């Protein structure tokens, strides 16, 4: 039901893809997010930057409920995620369905190590989305080809470099034809010489008009691909705006200092 | 290729020659005339050993999965009994367990007329159900402990990825958690299965005629001691070798896990 319609979403009608409203998250007494709000329209590339412990990964993980928000409202594709008063998702089915629309890419890749790359990529389409197997395989091979791993389809993740694994993980996320892609520090676990190959794949996706939320430490990259940059500091949005302004003329002293330290 | 060439190293050739000499000596100068008479019984016993091993390992492992899961992530009211079960099984001799089941239940059941009248009675009055039960529980107890570790050892990121893509919980268990847990402990399971094989002779003590019992029978009938025992050792070694081979095959099909 998903495989055919994959032309990039038209940029003209700026519908919202994700709305995060007044998101709070505490781990015990530690308040990691203190009221974060964020809107991503379809086709937007939003880069989320900030120092370690600023809550940027937590925010991303709250969107697909890998972390349960303490409070707040999350709307994906005009569908609000129903939550109980304690912040837990009220409807497991709903959250599972929405998760299949959010292609997540992890810092540690998290490819399933007991499956080959091809099996990794078709796993969710075949078993969760019930795409016919042959169709899923054809599409998976095309995706692997796209990230430059066509010849590794039958290889297990353990035999690949970090960069290759991360590119395969991107193919896996693309295989569900996600409405929004969530990147959680996709290059932080990579050796410096492998960062480029992964960034170039993400850059292509941005050029194609995919909606993406990217938590990253790569400032140059963020400046180049993002439509909107969000700077988080101690669980709050300290500053946000178009990349030229955030990087070129930062208003807040903290952001200026942050940009100086990360270079 | 190189594997075969490695067999031709001088010290290996010497060992092989010694072993071949031993086998030839055994064949020529020991008594094997009893063999044709007892062959049918031996085949029957061998078959019994193999199916008892297979059935108890499979059933025991199926029990070990919930036992391990309960201990790894279960609520206390499931974890505590599971831990108690594994501790008791691992803390008492298997022979004792077999005897307690056989002589305990075996002498308890006939006192109840409704059990004797039940359709299960033809089985309950035989020895093998108690043997199978005892060996199953034993395997479950040991493997329950192994699976506890196996379930906890699966990388959290693997499960998180499955969750992030909207897999329902059962599917995560079936397609990611369980296969990876088993993969992580395959070498241990292979070893434990061989231990289970070597535990099967204990059921001879409750009149289940498996291969060890056959060799005892030969000794009792003919007063020939060493020949049946030597043959018995060979049989166990071959089965153990086959088990090791099977597990090795499965292991090599999915190369090892760790990422990055």
UniProtKB/TrEMBL annotation, chain A:
Residues 18-259 form the ABC transporter domain. One of its GO terms (molecular function) is ATP hydrolysis activity. SMART domains: AAA. Its main location: membrane. Keywords: ATP-binding, Cell membrane, Membrane, Nucleotide-binding, Transport. Belongs to the ABC transporter superfamily. This is Amino acid ABC transporter ATP-binding protein, PAAT family. It comes from Roseovarius azorensis.
From TrEMBL, chain B:
It is found in: Cell inner membrane; Cell membrane. It is a multi-pass membrane protein. The keyword Kinase does not apply. The keyword Magnesium does not apply. One of its GO terms (molecular function) is transmembrane transporter activity. CDD domains: TM_PBP2. One of its GO terms (biological process) is amino acid transport. Residues 46-247 form the ABC transmembrane type-1 domain. Keywords: Cell inner membrane, Cell membrane, Membrane, Transmembrane, Transmembrane helix, Transport. One of its GO terms (cellular component) is ATP-binding cassette (ABC) transporter complex. The chain crosses the membrane at residues 12-30, 50-70, 229-250. Gene3D superfamilies: MetI-like. Belongs to the binding-protein-dependent transport system permease family. HisMQ subfamily. NCBIfam families: HEQRo_perm_3TM. This is Amino acid ABC transporter membrane protein 2, PAAT family. It comes from Roseovarius azorensis. The lineage of its organism: Bacteria, Pseudomonadati, Pseudomonadota, Alphaproteobacteria, Rhodobacterales.
């Amino acid at each position: 039901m998903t495989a055919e319609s994959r032309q990039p979403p038209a940029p003209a009608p700026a519908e919202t893809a994700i709305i995060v409203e007044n998101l709070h998250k505490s781990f015990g007494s530690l308040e990691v997010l203190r009221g974060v709000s964020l809107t991503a329209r379809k086709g937007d590339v939003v880069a989320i930057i900030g120092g370690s412990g600023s809550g940027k990964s937590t925010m991303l993980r709250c969107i697909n409920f890998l972390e349960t928000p303490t409070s707040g409202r999350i709307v994906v594709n005009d569908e609000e995620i129903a939550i109980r008063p304690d912040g837990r998702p009220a409807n497991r089915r709903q959250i599972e369905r929405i998760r299949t629309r959010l292609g997540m890419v992890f810092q540690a890749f998290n490819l399933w190590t007991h499956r080959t790359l091809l099996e990794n990529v078709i796993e969710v389409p075949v078993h969760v989305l019930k795409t016919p197997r042959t169709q899923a395989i054809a599409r998976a091979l095309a995706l692997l080809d796209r990230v430059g791993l066509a010849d590794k389809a039958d290889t297990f993740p353990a035999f690949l470099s970090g960069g290759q694994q991360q590119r395969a993980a991107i193919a896996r996320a693309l295989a569900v034809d996600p409405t929004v892609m969530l990147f959680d520090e996709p290059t932080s676990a990579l050796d410096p010489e492998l960062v480029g190959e992964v960034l170039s794949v993400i850059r292509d996706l941005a050029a194609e008009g995919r909606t993406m939320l990217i938590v990253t430490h790569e400032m140059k990259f963020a400046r180049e691909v993002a439509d909107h940059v969000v700077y988080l500091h101690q669980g709050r949005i300290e500053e946000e705006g178009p990349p030229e302004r955030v990087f070129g003329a930062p208003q807040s002293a903290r952001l200026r200092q942050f940009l100086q330290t990360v270079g | 290729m190189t594997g075969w060439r490695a067999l031709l190293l001088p010290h290996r050739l010497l060992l092989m020659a010694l072993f071949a000499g031993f086998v030839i000596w055994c064949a020529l100068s020991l008594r094997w005339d009893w063999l044709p008479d007892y062959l049918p019984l031996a085949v029957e016993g061998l078959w019994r050993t193999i199916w008892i091993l297979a059935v108890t390992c499979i059933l025991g492992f199926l029990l070990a999965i919930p036992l391990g899961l309960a201990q790894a992530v279960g609520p206390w009211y499931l974890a505590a009994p599971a831990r108690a079960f594994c501790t008791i099984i691992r803390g008492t001799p298997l022979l004792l367990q077999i005897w307690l089941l056989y002589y305990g239940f075996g002498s308890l059941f006939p006192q109840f007329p409704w059990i004797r009248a039940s359709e299960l009675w033809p089985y309950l009055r035989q020895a093998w159900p108690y043997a199978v039960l005892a060996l199953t529980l034993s395997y479950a107890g040991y493997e329950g402990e192994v699976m506890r570790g196996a379930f906890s050892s699966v990388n959290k990121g693997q499960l998180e990825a499955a969750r992030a893509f909207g897999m329902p919980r059962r599917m995560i268990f079936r397609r990611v958690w369980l296969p990876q847990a088993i993969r992580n402990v395959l070498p241990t399971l292979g070893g434990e299965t061989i231990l289970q094989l070597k535990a099967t002779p204990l059921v001879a003590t409750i009149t289940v005629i498996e291969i060890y019992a056959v060799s005892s029978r030969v000794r009792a009938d003919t007063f020939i001691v060493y020949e049946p025992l030597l043959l018995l050792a060979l049989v166990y070694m071959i089965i153990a070798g086959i088990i090791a081979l099977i597990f090795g095959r499965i292991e090599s099909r999915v190369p090892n896990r760790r990422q990055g």
